[in-house]
Amino acid sequence: MIGQGRENGDFNGYLVTGGVMCLLVGVTALLPWIVETVVARLGPGGVSWQLAVRRLQLSSGAAARMVNGIAVAVAGAIALQMLFAGVEGDYTKNTGFDFSRAQMQVRVPQGEQLTAATGELEKTEGVREVIALSEGSLSDRPFDEEPEHWTELTVGDCATLREVAKLPACADGDVFAVRGGEYDIDTPSLSKPGRKLYLDRGGADGDPADLVVTLPRTLKEADSIEDPTGMRRGGFLMTPAAAPEGMLEALRGELYLSLDESVPDVREHVRNTAARVDPLAYPTTWTTAERTERFDAIRTGLFAGATAVLALIGASLLVSQLEQLRERRKLLSALIAFGTRRRTLSLSVLWQTAIPIGLGLLLASVVGMTLGAVLLRMTSTPVSVDWPSVLQMTGIGAGVVLVVTLLSLPPLLRMMRPDGLRTE
Asked: Residue 138: exposed, middle, or buried by beta-carbon count in 10 A (0-12, 13-18, 19+)?
């Protein structure tokens, strides 16, 4: 199956499922033998150690059967977590945002609120810098006449426009045609000095649906550079003095914020300020990478399912532990009657559980990593051990055993009484 599971899941699923099940069932065959072999060679120690080791030597099979379920569950979970960690890159992509320039973005749909929003955000705790731009679209015809060509429009002062393009000499009142924009093919045909273009303003309040923008006779050119979002924008750049009356209000505002990450809850401060300035403002927190939500949901469900299975196995283990203690009630009472300390017997019970569990988790880790490596090779993915997942699942397995042991201590203490020797 090596290399056959990469293209659209077109492989023999029954063979893969059968192989995984055989490997996991093999854990239940190996564990009793490993426990028996190891405990037979354990050396002397304290009284609690000797009691635990002798008990395991007499009934190692029963101890192994108690922990078989946890070993199988941990091995399967480690293998699947390794597989998901290996193919994570296929479901993760770089957002392209320039984190050195901004870490949040706030969209203000009403252009007249841009100035107020900029001022308030600049005064917000934890905000270092605000890059404020007005953005919209220009076309060669009114939008209700289905224009053939359209392009972007960006309005800002000279310092702000230099964040998105490499400008020659700039003064308020200049207009620039941008070269080198991504996905921009219409700007060259529209950038003719004196040409009339149309800005869609939505037809609100009885205003004409489109605002006419006339390009100046001295139209300058600028080279596009990556803006804070990582894109090279095209279209036209305009300084505020060149904008006709009513145009800025018809554009949407985009604010790019550089934050001081050392300020606690700095993003919450930004959200509160944006909501106070304009309830329709839309703040967005940037990330360096984004992952498919379905992939995250499957991986989270896998972890939750494995944890739930281990909890159920732990409940079964607790029942088995209590049954064994009840069967040994007279023996425990006899040991107490002969003067054995309660702490010694409690430690012996802990050792009887810890030794098989330790061997089981060790075997589960080896089998799980082996199975994970096979699955990664099957998907033609470089093999690497996801140590956080290995430690996480083994830690949960060990935690289940610790909880079972602690829950079995109160019944154990009640059974360690001399009156347990009474019989009819």
From this structure: buried
Question: 209 pLDDT band (50/70/90 cuts)?
Answer: low
Per the confidence metrics, is the pTM higher than 0.70?
A: no
Rg of the Cα atoms in the chain:
35
- The C-alpha atoms of residue 273 and residue 278 are separated, in whole angstroms, by 9
- Residue 304 structural domain: 13-94+292-421
Helix (H) or strand (E) holding 283: strand 282-285
Q: pLDDT > 90: what percent of the chain?
A: 10
pLDDT of 206 reads 42
CA-to-CA distance for 136 and 138, rounded, in angstroms? 7
CA-CA-CA-CA torsion for 227, 230, 232, 237, nearest 10 degrees? Answer: -20
Parallel, antiparallel or unpaired: strands 175-179 and 220-224: parallel
Q: Are residues 139 and 262 in the same domain?
A: yes
What are the φ and ψ backbone dihedral angles of 148, each rounded to 5 degrees? Answer: -85, -35
Summary mean pLDDT of the chain:
84
- How many other β-carbons are positioned within 10 Å of the β-carbon of residue 387? 11
The answer to whether 361 touches 394, Cβ cutoff 8 Å, is yes
- Return the structure tokens found at 144: 């209700």
Structure tokens, 166:
């490499």
Same domain, 86 and 23: yes
In the predicted structure, residue 268 carries a pLDDT above the cut 90: yes
